[in-house]
């Protein structure tokens, strides 16, 4: 019983922290006869604070699981240095830079950064970790590094 109580407390605390720590930019109601809203969050890349990603996703109030649909748009909003670029994962799989729980049923929204060396571009992939309606929902955005890392 104590383990269950601890797990529930951890879920509640992490949910409250996400709400309190969230960088909400906007909220759009989907209508009078629905309990779903579209939320838009702004997230800075933790290793490249000169990149901001805006992520939109649907939250269904009073539902245990939010839909998997999301969209992402990332832009350079500040300087990106050569030293900062040296810290990122340059493998084909890249690295996860943001994670958000979408349900208590193990569905998560993740954003992964992948470096495209040939085109000197950062690719941000937003995806759900749970298959919905026959597919894994995903969206991409790119940030060109053209002259971005001239900053010393």
Quick take:
This protein has 152 residues and is of the alpha+beta class. It contains two helices and eight strands; from the N terminus they run αββββαββββ.
3D architecture notes:
With 152 residues, this protein is an alpha+beta fold. It has one domain. Helices cover 16% and strands 41% of the residues. The strands form 2 sheets. It has a 4-stranded antiparallel sheet with strand order 1-2-3-4, with no helix packed on it. Strands 5-6-7-8 form a 4-stranded antiparallel sheet, with no helix packed on it. The longest helix has 20 residues. The N and C termini lie far apart (56 Å).
Structural key phrases:
152 residues; alpha+beta; four-stranded antiparallel sheet; 16% helix
| Alpha carbon gap, first and last residue | 56 Å
Largest β sheet strand count, sense and barrel closure:
4 strands, antiparallel
Low-confidence stretches: 4-21
What strand order characterises the main sheet?
Answer: 1-2-3-4
User: How much of the polypeptide forms β-strand, as a percent range?
Assistant: 35-45%
**Overall average pLDDT:** 76
Share of helical residues: 10-25%
Q: How many distinct domains?
A: 1
Q: What is the N-to-C order of secondary-structure elements (H for helix, E for strand)? A: HEEEEHEEEE
Number of strands: 8
C-alpha geometry: elongated
The helix-and-strand class reads alpha+beta
């Amino acid at each position: 019983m104590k383990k269950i109580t601890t797990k529930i407390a951890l879920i509640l605390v992490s949910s409250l922290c996400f709400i309190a720590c969230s960088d909400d930019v906007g909220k759009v109601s989907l209508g009078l006869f629905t309990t779903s809203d579209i939320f838009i969050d702004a997230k800075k890349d933790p290793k490249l604070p000169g990149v901001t990603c805006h992520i939109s996703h649907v939250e269904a109030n009073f539902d245990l699981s939010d839909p998997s649909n999301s969209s992402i748009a990332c832009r350079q909003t500040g300087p990106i240095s050569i030293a900062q670029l040296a810290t990122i994962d340059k493998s084909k799989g890249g690295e996860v830079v943001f994670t958000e729980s979408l349900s208590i049923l193990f569905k998560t929204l993740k954003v992964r950064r992948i470096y495209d060396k040939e085109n000197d571009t950062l690719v941000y992939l937003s995806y759900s970790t749970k298959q919905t309606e026959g597919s894994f929902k995903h969206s991409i955005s790119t940030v060109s590094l053209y002259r971005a890392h001239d900053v010393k």
